[in-house]
Structures are given as structure tokens and as C-alpha cells.
């Protein structure tokens, strides 16, 4: 797996992307936002829902400066290039 040598700590480069129907959202690098927006819209158009309402666990994650678990390598999340969908 390729990792990033260091995190992107400039949060101003990150933006929120929201799924158009369910409203789930992820913070990602602004350059990746159009791609994620397209994927989210297409998945929901085909019937997938990222958030099922108040009883649903909030387990969709994006930008967060952190290392890969049990590693010294930086996660894709640290650059705003990683997302988790229904992680739990």
C-alpha cells in the first residue's frame, strides 16, 4: 500500500462533500471533491443510502490527520484522500 510521507495539516484545502439524498458527508481534499461527489450521487441514484437516519451509526469518515493503525506510516486520510463508508 502506498502511504503519504507526511500529513496535510492545511485544513483550508479540505471541503465537505455531501451525498445528495441521504445527506451523509465526508471532508476531503478539494481536488478530489468532484470525483467523490459523482460517485456518491451515482450510488444513491442506483439505490444505495449512505445514511439511514437518526438510528444509523455515523461511520462515514474522511480527512483526519492520523497514522495507519500499528504503523509509522501516514494514512491517506491525513492528506484528505481517504474515506470510509459504513466503516462499522
Q: Can you give me a brief rundown of this structure?
A:
With 88 residues, the protein is low in regular secondary structure. The chain has one helix spanning 33-45, and strands at 14-18, 25-29. The longest helix is centred in the middle third of the chain and has 13 residues, at 33-45.
SSE order in H/E notation? Answer: EEH
The unreliable regions are none
How many helices in DSSP terms?
A: 1
Helix percentage: 10-25%
Q: What structural class do helix, strand and pairing data support?
A: little secondary structure
Most strands sheet: 2 strands, antiparallel
What's the arrangement of strands in the largest beta sheet? 1-2
Rough outline: globular
Q: What Rg do the Cα atoms give?
A: 14 Å
Q: Tell how many strands the DSSP assignment holds.
A: 2
What does the average pLDDT come to?
91
Q: Assess the beta-strand content as a share of residues.
A: 5-15%
Distance between the termini: 22 Å
Amino acid at each position: 500500500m502506498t502511504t503519504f510521507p507526511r500529513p496535510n495539516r492545511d485544513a483550508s484545502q479540505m471541503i465537505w462533500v455531501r451525498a445528495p439524498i441521504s445527506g451523509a458527508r465526508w471532508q476531503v481534499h478539494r481536488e478530489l471533491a468532484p470525483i467523490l461527489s459523482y460517485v456518491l450521487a451515482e450510488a444513491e441514484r442506483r439505490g444505495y443510502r449512505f445514511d439511514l437516519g437518526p438510528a444509523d451509526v455515523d461511520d462515514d469518515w474522511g480527512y483526519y490527520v492520523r497514522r495507519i493503525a500499528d504503523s509509522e506510516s501516514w494514512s491517506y486520510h491525513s492528506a484528505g484522500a481517504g474515506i470510509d463508508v459504513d466503516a462499522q
